[in-house]
Amino acid sequence: xxxxxxxxxxxxxxxxxxxxxxxxxxxxxxxxxxxxxxxxxxxxxxxxxxxxxxxxxxxxxxxxxxxxxxxxxxxxxxxxxxxxxxxxxxxxxxxxxxxxxxxxxxxx
Amino acid sequence: xxxxxxxxxxxxxxxxxxxxxxxxxxxxxxxxxxxxxxxxxxxxxxxxxxxxxxxxxxxxxxxxxxxxxxxxxxxxxxxxxxxxxxxxxxxxxxxxxxxxxxxxxxxxxxxxxxxxxxxxxxxxxxxxxxxxxxxxx
Lengths: 108, 137
Fold this sequence. Notes:
Chain A is an alpha/beta fold. Chain A contains five helices and five strands, in the order E-H-E-H-E-H-E-H-E-H. Helix content of chain A is 44%, strand content 21%. The longest helix of chain A is centred in the last third of the chain and has 15 residues, at 76-90. Chain A is globular. By secondary structure, chain B is α/β, with parallel strands linked by helices. The radius of gyration of chain B is 15 Å and the shape is globular.
């Protein structure tokens, strides 16, 4: 299975470790070069430095072939737009967005 | 725009403030939202609307701006993703009649045309118009 994760922090780190351990081909998109470097050292995933809501970055991450995209940043708008671009532009069958503001549960 | 409309503007940068000042001068009720209080200094002294400090990515902030009552919603912050999310929330959750989002990156713009969200990318549109005029002339 091919998985793209967008974001950083512990949540992204542990999910990346879990997915790679299960043998999924995992790519992480992280905005911070420093955090991306740490992730690259500590996991076996492919790490891309960039904005996950940018269609060109998603293309570089292999969105065309991805089975799942999980957007885990602390910004709801970035998570939503990344999932929508992945779904509509690259045909990713399953996308999951982290909602930081619980009020959006009803809205989405 | 003969009658007075209720217009919510997200983002009080150069574009947001200029729109707010002009629409207010035309007699419309305007609310401007920005998460930076200092941004509202760009509003002119004749601006007769309201301003609201808050992050528009928060649903409660949009509710406080009374977005459900708005005739038009203009999402003109410096962040493409925020503009696109607010525009979609305005359209689908609050059924605002006229919704516009400013988008800087043309690569993002294409898919939102499909969602029926009107997007404005000023620089590209302006350059193209001038270029086409020059070439035609």
